[in-house]
Design brief:
Length: about 250
């Protein structure tokens, strides 16, 4: 028997004024799996995951996360569910005026009232987990692009979420850093059983993390399957998207 999906979306639509961005999205993500969403710029990928975490309100359709209806929740109930969902923003969104430690502490203090020693321990353990414990007292400006992404990842896992949503986790990184971040994402699945959705147009990253790929165009998923299968489809937008890249199954 198939396990119940941790994230289940049916008939999701979202417009901004006259612009229909999402026209009917269906998606199931089984426990511990990573669904990758691909598609052209402006196709609605970020809108989709912002709607899933409840940062944007769905117009129609249902969004089930961990057995709760995100589309029906508001206020404190939504805030509570959101604590089980980590979100890695497209921009990373670290506070520049705070050190790495203060950036991580900001979330812990707001949501968990841990004794200071326990909070400090959790911060250090999380930084060790992303391989950057020595950056504790650095400001974001002193970090490389890859390090910033890893600190942003540390911040999104510090609350120990069950679900992670990644918006372009590796954009702008060199291949070595891409591998490092992508392997951290895989370890989060393997070691913590995290279920995730990742938006990426980075094929190296997708090769490493994707269990299933969904290609978004004109407000709908026009293809779903393994990265290898999708990359071979003879659809003009998909051919343009993948260019001449060859997919190497991992
Ligand atoms: N808050 C908003 N208000 C109005 N329009 C919006 C808003 N957010 C997104 N849009 C519009 O929705 C469409 C999809 O945007 P979205 O950010 O989801 O694209 P994307 O697929 O993530 O693109 P990219 O790959 O460039 O990040 C765009 O036309 C954008 O202008
Ligand atoms: Mg986007």
């Amino acid at each position: 028997m198939k396990p119940e999906p941790v994230i289940q979306i049916r008939g999701l639509t979202k417009s901004f004024g006259p612009i229909e961005v999402l026209k009917g999205i269906d998606l199931d993500v089984p426990p511990g799996k990573c669904a990758v969403v691909m598609g052209g710029s402006g196709s609605g990928k970020s809108v989709l995951i912002k709607t899933i975490v409840g940062l944007l309100k769905a117009d129609k359709g249902t969004i089930n996360v961990l057995g709760e209806r995100v589309d029906l929740l508001a206020g404190d109930e939504l805030d509570k569910l959101r604590l089980s969902m980590g979100f890695l923003f497209q921009s990373g969104a670290l506070f520049d005026s705070m050190t790495v430690s203060e950036n991580l502490m900001f979330f812990l203090e707001r949501h968990l009232h841990l004794p200071p020693a326990e909070a400090a321990d959790r911060i250090l353990q999380t930084l060790e987990w992303v391989g950057l414990p020595e950056k504790l007292h650095d400001y974001p400006a002193a970090l490389s692009g890859g390090q910033k992404k890893r600190i942003a990842l540390a911040r999104s896992i510090i609350m120990e979420p069950k679900i992670l949503l990644y918006d372009e986790p590796t954009t702008g990184l060199d291949p070595v850093s891409v591998r490092m971040v992508a392997h951290l994402i895989v370890r989060l699945q393997a070691e913590r059983g995290i279920t995730s959705i990742a938006i990426t147009h980075d094929l190296l990253c997708a090769e490493i993390i994707a269990d299933e790929v969904h290609f978004l165009q004109d407000g709908r998923f026009i293809a779903s399957g393994s990265l290898e299968d999708i990359s071979r489809l003879d659809h003009p937008s998909i051919v343009t998207f993948f260019g001449n890249e060859t997919i190497h199954p991992v």
